[in-house]
Amino acid sequence: MLQLHRGITSSRVCDKLRRMLRFLPVFFWVCLTARLFSQGETGSLTGKILDRTDSPVPAIVELSLQSNSSRKFNSTADASGTYRISGLPAGKYILHFSWPGFHTLRLTQVSIADGQTRELPNLHLDVGLVSDCAGHGFLDKRRLLKENPKTGLLKGRILKVSPSTGGLRWPVASANVTLLCEFGRACGRTKTDALGGFTFSGSGGNRTIQVTRTGYYLLEESGYAIEEGIESVYHPTYLEKCPSGSCDSRLRPEKPVAHCE
């Protein structure tokens, strides 16, 4: 009787194993499908690269993941300045645009979702054949704003150089900054903060800034721009202190050396 009981038990175990084995292919198929869906579809990025006259630039485009800079994707803009990069996994990217005769453009915070085809706003390269940064804005970096808004941001800082402290640079707070649009029309006004910073927002276009502060000579610089959907951060520009408190331009000493950093 004991042997018969053992035989019946073994038979039941074998039956259970056979039933489990029949479901193994289904189990593996479910796991594989779940993995494929978890990876998501790849996305793509497209846009146009132009110069400041809105002429196309056949720039070299390099894209890298912010979380893994060694993973890169490359492309080249065509004769119309249009570029397209496909096969992008979801994530945040950094873009670099380069072409001989132009400053390299670096754009951060470019997000791609699973299966998304994202079109960036038109981007502009600045001519790199400049001997210094005197009298014009000098771009530092750009960042893509969320959701590609129809307005852009322009940021900068106003500093002063103090010869009495070995040339140390200090922020100029409460300076009046005016943004000049086409035909010298004032299209924005603000004051610098405690760190000398200022920010303007608006639609795209080339701009000039005009800065005034009691005890300093008037500063007016062109070469700034607002680009739709982009935050553009410019290098600091410098105010020149009036000697002995007199800001008569006829008594102004020779123009100080420009500081590019």
Keywords:
261 residues; mainly beta; four-stranded mixed sheet; 18 strands; elongated; 1 helix; ten-stranded mixed sheet
Give the structure's gist in a few sentences:
The chain is built from one helix and 18 strands. With 261 residues, it is mainly β.
Categorize the overall geometry.
Answer: elongated
Continuous helix count: 1
Element string (H = helix, E = strand): HEEEEEEEEEEEEEEEEEE
- Count of distinct strands: 18
Beta-strand fraction estimate: 35-45%
Quaternary structure of the protein? single chain
Radius of gyration: 30 Å
Note the gap between the termini. Answer: 95 Å
Question: Mean pLDDT, nearest integer?
Answer: 81
Q: Would you spell out the secondary-structure blueprint of this structure?
A:
Blueprint: H1 2-39, E1 43-51, E2 60-65, E3 68-76, E4 82-88, E5 91-98, E6 105-112, E7 117-119, E8 123-125, E9 139-144, E10 152-162, E11 168-171, E12 176-180, E13 186-191, E14 197-202, E15 205-212, E16 219-226, E17 230-234, E18 237-239
Parallel strand pairs: 1-7, 1-8, 6-9, 10-17, 10-18
Antiparallel strand pairs: 1-4, 2-3, 2-5, 5-6, 9-17, 10-11, 10-14, 12-13, 12-15, 15-16
Explain this structure to me?
The protein is mainly β and about 260 residues long. About 15% of the residues lie in helices and about 45% in strands. It has one helix and 18 strands. It has one helix spanning about 1-40, and strands at about 45-50, 60-65, 70-75, 80-90, 90-100, 105-110, 115-120, 125, 140-145, 150-160, 170, 175-180, 185-190, 195-200, 205-210, 220-225, 230-235, 235-240. The strands form three sheets. Strands 2, 3, 5, 6, 9, 10, 11, 14, 17 and 18 form a ten-stranded mixed β-sheet that branches. Strands 1, 4, 7 and 8 form a four-stranded mixed β-sheet that branches. It is elongated.
